[in-house]
Amino acid sequence: MSRNIRLVGIFVLVMFLALFGSSTYIQVFQAQSLAQDDRNTRTLLASYQVQRGPILVDGVPIAYSTPDGTEYMYQRVYANGPLYSAVTGYYSANQGATGIEQAMNAELSGKSDSQFFTSLQRLFTGETPAGAAVELTINPAAQQSAMDALGDQRGAVVAIDPKTGAILAMVSTPTYDPNTLAMHDDEQVIANYNALLENPSNPLFNRGIGGDLNPPGSVFKVIVAAAALEAGIATPDGALPNPNEWQLPGSSHVIYNPNHGAKCGDGDTTTLRMALEQSCNIPFAQLAVQLGDAKLREMAEAFGFNQAFNVPMSSTASVYPEEKLDNAQTALTGFGQFDVRTTPLQMALVSAAISNGGTMMQPNLVKQVLTPSLQVLASPKATEFGAPISDATATALQSMMQGSVDHGVATNAQINGVAVAGKTGTAENGDGEPYSLWFTGFAEVDGQEVAVAVVLEDGGGMGQSGTGNGLAATIGQQVIKAVLEV
């Protein structure tokens, strides 16, 4: 009998220790993740008892909370929601949160560590609990210009200050109205959310930093040119072979320059400058093979490919294939095809680094975090991502990209009285599929700098008839003008 009692005692002790261990693990180690889980309705309802802080652009609220007289107490409101949806995202009672609403949730809800004493003070003074305000780096004129220029087209624009990494514009179209997901009618919110999910144009995608990534096409030639200059296998005006067609190594496939069968210039040789200005495929394919896929991958990754950026939303990593490529595949990456994929954020950062003398800054959307009484809680400092290229290489690329805009294939980016540098791209997506159209570039006026990248999907509505210069460069020009106020 005593033996059975001992066994029962041991079993109860083991069960008690298991219960104690699991509850300790949940309360200590899983508490934060459980509190932040979108399915935790208790935490969500509790969050609505606090007046969520506003999101500001140029001091003006673009998202704020107002009393609504329901159990939630506060209703989230988005002023000009479709214009800023790619930035703010949404904060929903049953669909979670995205964008800045998600990335800065701790600050907006008043739960960040830096707000402990502020929240404690409001508790003792009897003030209504409130979250911090998050002010963004967005330039409202640039944001509006990007939206107007994109219009009904499917695509995105990202503009960056090369000196600081501050994101000045981020627009993705088609857009949506976050107010339709922030209302407190659950059935209507779910219906609205499902309608957005079922929309074949995918308006919930933020194409500026993610979504279904596009091949960069010829804008990737800037990275190939950078690698060739850094490796010393080419100079801006040194001679390069200039055939009118070229068979890929180890393949029966033949590639051509954009004007089918045309040489890159008139002579038997061409130059890197001419190849970039006229966006010739063959010289860049040959340079890519000469460099090898390892060096191309190294340069692409130095600019940020194959890793995500936190802006503070996490971007989808742009892709340069990580597996070893054969020479034919490497040649195709030389003009941004094969399996290379990228975001406008990534290409804007490439242009920004070239504009900034070879130094690339970390991209950032948050200018400062403010208490409910508008005292500064945090002001993120500009930080370097790295220096993918030397100042000499950056200077050479600046000159060649200016030539592309002045008299090359990016002429629609020209602005009177402003030295604009740029590169266009018209990327293939498969037989019969519409092209992806690109522009990336930069300019400076009176110390104000801007780098921009534009992508248009579905050929800008023109299938395989649209071109990067014809459509994307014009959009880039409009955004540059808005930032520089010219």
UniProtKB/TrEMBL annotation:
Residues 155-477 form the Penicillin-binding protein transpeptidase domain. InterPro entries: Beta-lactam/transpept, Beta-lactam/transpept-like, PBP_dimer_sf, PBPA_dimer, PCN-bd_Tpept. Signal peptide: none annotated. It comes from the Bacteria. GO terms for molecular function: penicillin binding; peptidoglycan L,D-transpeptidase activity. GO terms for cellular component: plasma membrane. This is Penicillin-binding protein 2. Residues 52-134 form the Penicillin binding protein A dimerisation domain. GO terms for biological process: cell wall organization.
